[in-house]
């Protein structure tokens, strides 16, 4: 164990002894983050939702109001003519979601019939804030219905005449009071207007790119240490291959985390609020950095020269960052590009960061993204560590 | 004699990209005794480094095994590695770090720490005469200095056995001398066993207690220098540089008539001639070299002088005993330097 730390320490010492490395670790990322951060429009502003209310009763209007009230950032869109045009508007990205309340909604509530509510959105399969809010309102409705139904049965059994509608209304009132505020909320309107807000995209986004630059650049270091035989010299000492690779992995991981901390430190100075979620934020960073470290090893095992390594590191960093929403939020690109973008680890780490920074998400909300990153790390490490040659 | 290293049928076959094999080392078996300097002498690509890599645990043999102080390098690698110090053919150092920082790191890899580590570092720095430059970065060093640090790093663990893979490559004569002296000191003062590889006959001759000649992945001869030359029955040579005589044939006939001269060679030194005249041989060469092969060169020397003295002017004369070059030539039909 001790030797793993010594190897990591030694590699970091070598890395930091080169002035060029220090500049690419600090100055360049900070300058870029500043430029992007000050020039991107603040986001987290609003989600436009179209409602097609085919029922048009007080009950259906109450449902619409409940959904809109679930989140400060939801805005009601202009009324779409029909379902098809609403769907098109969603696909084009001109609105975030469309919800169709079918005719007979109010009646179904009275008679406790099942009734589908159509829902279109551009959120991914894990759902986004709109879907969460709609689910919340629906489950609240369902609870009210069940409560009212249960109440009615009791009253009937006692042979007391009761009006079902009043029961239902009362149940809903009660439930609304108890309803736990859904924690998946957009940031408050006033925060979105703060000057530091642009850094919420630029710091994590460019962070993801520069972590790749730094860590993937480690491929070249690995090859260099094999070329100058220092790697071979270590392996003929009484130390296992696992320890040597462990040391190298640790050094890349630490370097990646340093890169992130530099950028987030700068972001914090510029007014980016990470608040109480700092532990979760570090958790997301760590999962991503681990994934990139694993990618580094997976690729290094099949690369011939240092020049190739540097070229590939730069190419991958720039393209994966662009693809995965490191430069601009993925919401601004067409849906199929959003899906495609998720082949990039950057997309997953950005989902994680956005969930924390803009949507005040908790551990459970970021867990899917972290799982994807850690899962890929395991696969990539398995490939890289098995294939990386030191002697043979 | 106690055996320090024993290799048994070591074989290494690399695969090219097109799946054709490279037989780098073919079933090599030899022993190195404790306290001796053993040289592997062979031309470029003979398989010296591959052999060392296998017996230091760097690469897995395709077949066979090696035992270091009785420990199998395949089964008991950790114990075997504790006994070995390795000086790779490459300068295996971090150029961005100072000599001392390099030594510190490699010392830690041997589980040395604290006072003990500091003491060992001071020890090897002093031994390799690196005190003055120990705090300078390796990339500011000359080739010879780098080689010395490279050796120092292999000595940190006070190994019983040290592998030195062409440790004088690319080094000026002064540093080469120093390194060769170091090798003797390791054996004589520290009782280390040394495995030394080189493609230079002179180094192997000067240093070695025993020599293995390796070519195309096979040990083609092994023994002391005397044993090797005796085995091929090589003769002494009298090498005489002369001014070219007017009547060459008479001179040669007289020499060839001597019963103890088994062979006489005569070579006009055109090269020297061209050299002296600045590139173009406009006049005939004036110098020649006579080589007389015989069993005992010293004894024949006086008689040969007697024969030729009257006929030619002698520039120099030398008795050469059979050397490894001759052995290699005899065994392979090629010169070692080719
Ligand atoms: N990793 C490898 N992959 C493929 N072929 C190799 C590899 N290492 C060595 N060889 C080949 O094996 C043969 C022996 O090489 P080796 O380096 O052992 O020779 P050497 O005697 O040390 O030569 P030199 O004096 O040049 O150092 C050579 O033909 C070399 O090209
Ligand atoms: Mg070699």
Topology diagram in text:
The complex is a heterodimer of chains A (392) and B (338).
Chain A: H1 2-16, H2 19-25, H3 27-39, E1 47-53, H4 58-69, E2 74-76, H5 83-92, E3 97-101, H6 105-111, E4 118-121, H7 129-157, H8 164-178, H9 189-192, H10 199-216, H11 218-227, H12 230-235, H13 241-269, H14 278-300, H15 306-323, H16 335-341, H17 345-357, H18 363-387
Parallel strand pairs in A: 1-2, 1-3
Antiparallel strand pairs in A: 3-4
Chain B: E1 3-15, E2 21-33, E3 37-41, H1 48-55, E4 63-68, E5 71-72, H2 77-83, E6 84-87, H3 99-109, H4 114-127, H5 143-155, E7 161-165, H6 173-188, E8 193-198, H7 201-207, E9 210-215, E10 218-223, H8 225-231, E11 236-243, H9 248-256, E12 263-268, H10 270-276, E13 287-294, H11 297-309, E14 314-320, H12 324-332
Parallel strand pairs in B: 3-8, 3-9, 6-7, 7-8
Antiparallel strand pairs in B: 1-2, 1-4, 4-5, 9-10, 11-13, 11-14, 12-13
Helix pairs in contact in B: 3-4
The site of adenosine-5'-triphosphate (ATP) has 13 residues of chain B, from strand 2 and helix 1.
